[in-house]
Amino acid sequence: MNAPAAPESRASEPRAEDRPARLTVGVVGAGRVGPALAASLRLAGHRPVAVSAVSDASRRRAAELLPDVPVVEPARVLALADLVLLTVPDDALPGLVEGLADTGAVRPGQLLVHTSGRYGARVLDPARRAGALPLALHPAMTFTGTAVDVQRLAGCSFGVTAPEELRLAAEALVIEMGGEPEWIAEEARPLYHAALALGANHLVTLVAQSMELLHKAGVAAPDRMLGPLLGAALDNALRSGDAALTGPVARGDAGTVAAHVSELRKHAPGTVSGYLAMARTTADRALAHGLLKPELAEDLLGVLAEPSGSAHPADPADGPQGDDR
Q1: Residue pair 59/71 in contact by the 8 Å Cβ criterion
Q2: Minimal CA–CA distance to 106: which of 121, 124, 118, 91?
């Protein structure tokens, strides 16, 4: 198999006469990810030829991102495409692969790519036994299902897992989509995916809760208020890790934290358990990295251990305030 070349829009692109033949591309599962990746591959010179879509929303996505590409059954997608993107939910992937292999839909020499973060290449073993070339290419990006996703792939890291003999092909495809390949060992895929979910998925929940609370507090534009703050916090965290921790937990302001818990119980009780869990974790990390003074940690951890949030240490105005809010 010839590994795909770099995309046409890149400065390092080989001359047209030096490039291997382009591939026909199919998508099984027109969720938010598949059509965007296929559209990106089209920009690199490949040719989307078929997509499978069930819901009205998936059909709309396919029409927007892959206009004029026919919507067909999954088996027909495999019959038409040299490179097939399996972009279905994680739990549906093993059954889909087995079904396609058992029905003879898989063709020898066909590139079969899934985008699940959880699984490596091994989940494609039934198709591999039928002659397919298995690749796991997971974009570490959140998708909207719109054309903006294609642009966001520029510089996006992909978790890549594949047999050693297909490593160059896998990395070349990622580069063609504008991404940066990051090799992930088969056995490390679940941990890799858990790390991404911990950071990205939980961040959305935290931000949404924060915006709701600000709205209840009378802030007219919570998004405008949070944007600069969260942008700076993310940048600092990526640069400095735990050293970027600020706020009442890292300072040991137990009274302030107790007041937070009390207010949350009154106005948003559903947020209390999450606040306490994150505050405990923050306190542990701040203490371990020397940011939280041990003499202040006892009162703070006492507040965080209170099931009712009723502990009230000294007024926070009497404690250290600092300038790191």
Answers
A1: yes
A2: 124
Query: And the tokens for 271?
Result: 């947020």
Q: Is the CB of residue 100 less than 8 Å from the CB of residue 127? A: yes
pLDDT digits (tens, 9 = 90+) for 144-182: 999 999 999 999 999 999 999 999 999 999 999 999 999
Strand 180-183 to 24-28 pairing: unpaired
Beta bridge partners, 136, equal 114, 161
DSSP 8-state assignment for residue 198? I
DSSP 314: S
Q: Are 206 and 246 in contact (CB under 8 A)?
A: no
Residues 51 and 30: their CA atoms lie apart, in Å, by: 7
Phi, psi torsion values for 24, nearest 5 degrees: -85, 140
d(CA 294, CA 149): 46
- Cα 162 to Cα 154: distance, rounded to the nearest angstrom: 22
Task: Name the token pair of 208.
Answer: 């949404």
Cβ atoms within 10 Å, residue 42: 18
Burial class (CB in 10 A: 0-12, 13-18, 19+), 163: middle
Confidence of residue 122 (pLDDT cuts 50, 70, 90): very high
What is d(CA 223, CA 72) in angstroms, rounded to the nearest whole number? 41
Among candidate residues 50, 41, 114, 125, the one with its CA nearest the CA of residue 81 = 50
